[in-house]
Amino acid sequence: LNTVFAIVCGETMKILWFVILTCISCIVGEKILAIFPSASKSHLYSFEPLFTTLATRGHQVVLVSLYPLSYKNKNFTNIVINTGILKKRYDYSNLTNYDPSIQYDNSIVANIIFRDMAEIDELVLELMLQKLNDKYEFDLMMTEIFNTDLFLGFAHKFQTQIILLSSSSIEPWGTYRFGVPENPSFIQYANSYQKNLVSFLDRLRNVYDILYFKLYYEQIHIKTLNQVAKKLFGEDMPPLEELIEQSRLLLVNTHSSFKPVRPLSPQVIEVAGLHLKALKPVPKDIEDFINASEHGVVLFSFGSIVQSSTMSESTRRAFCDVFSQLPQRVLWKWEEDEMPEKPENVKIVKWLPQRDVLGHPNIKLFISHGGLLGTIEAVHNAVPILGIPFFGDQMQNIAYLAQIGVAIQLDFVNITKESVSYAVKTLLNDKSFKERAVKVSEIYHDRPQSPLDTAVYWTEYVIRHKGAHHLRTAAVDLPWYQYLLLDVIFVLLLCCITVVVIIFYVVKLIYKTLCETKQKQKIH
What we know:
By secondary structure, the chain is of the alpha/beta class. It has 17 helices and 13 strands. It folds into 3 domains: about 1-270 and about 450-475, Glycogen Phosphorylase B (Rossmann fold, 3-Layer(aba) Sandwich); about 285-445, Glycogen Phosphorylase B (Rossmann fold, 3-Layer(aba) Sandwich); about 485-524.
């Protein structure tokens, strides 16, 4: 008995010490500033679990965003900036105004991403500076890499380390700061409307797209941001380029299971699926509707921005005519109270918990606009997709899934009853799409850590190692001509030309000598 008692006491003390040490490690947390000025809620929701988990683990997290989070914790503060300052110059919600040509014109896209957002960011920054006064102290700053470099001024203001976050693929103007290769022969521009890089013209257009946005950022946008930064942060504000080079880590919302493989540097960590939380019960009316369908359910949702209820009558009729012929039921996110001539097997709802609905085993097909979060949710649950992309990275999201046999892509402007019927029935009846979706989902899930655990680990890794400078590749510090080996190529080319010239003149001299010798022999 004494021996047993000693063992029990020993194990109890070990557990007690573990709890004490855990508590101590939680108490000694970092002060983290997270800034999310994006007008898109999905950008914030992509990384919400990271911020809340860091707070749960004892770090003091201050999140500045345009939208409030419901999470409550003594270590978590959410500063919400008034969203009334946002300006909508391009309305993607109304499908009657949809113009696909916008996606093809780089000047329009660049104006949206850079010029228009820079104006909004300046207004947001003015309000943030009023909230984030000198009473705050921070050790680490986290913000997006998309078009928010202006806010890196806070890293200078509070003298913090920098971790960047990407809610989509890495943009061309973000690769160089982490030494990520950007070879346009096989790495496609993230927001390209092209489906793949098959022909010479495809690759030529891809080179143009990547160079256009990279040069627009470096030659125009960053100069504008530097002027605004000096005006708002003060004249002692260093160039944003210097702060950009101090970025220590990039957490990117991609994974090789559903995105084309590309080389990454040690500072870039893929965390796709970070936003996925444990499944919750869906509303009872939706659950009853799904459970009552013997042949399964088709989920139709264009996300939180695009409103399917604004589509033309002819397009709506094309969908409804096809749905009325299906043995499956259709759950349709429709923003109006009524739908004209709604088929009996269709249920319309103004809102639905998309992630939880997609997790229901009776969902057989997802008709989607191809937003990245919805795409990840479908891959997570092995649901085939009928993709109808509109803008941004949606084209590439759907194009690659179609390439690997998980989706079929349709162009919204060319929607007909015949095209919808073919796509829907093929995806529902051809078992290869479901089988491939299951395989892709298995690859997606087969990771040593969950996306959230991975993001938390690497965030704290940067904290533990004071910036983790050892992860930084030398490529970041090289001038572009050295990175591309143009100086070496130039010298080698010069050497080759020199050798050729020398050979030419030697041959010429020999030829001339021989000719002169023959001429002398003729004279004699």
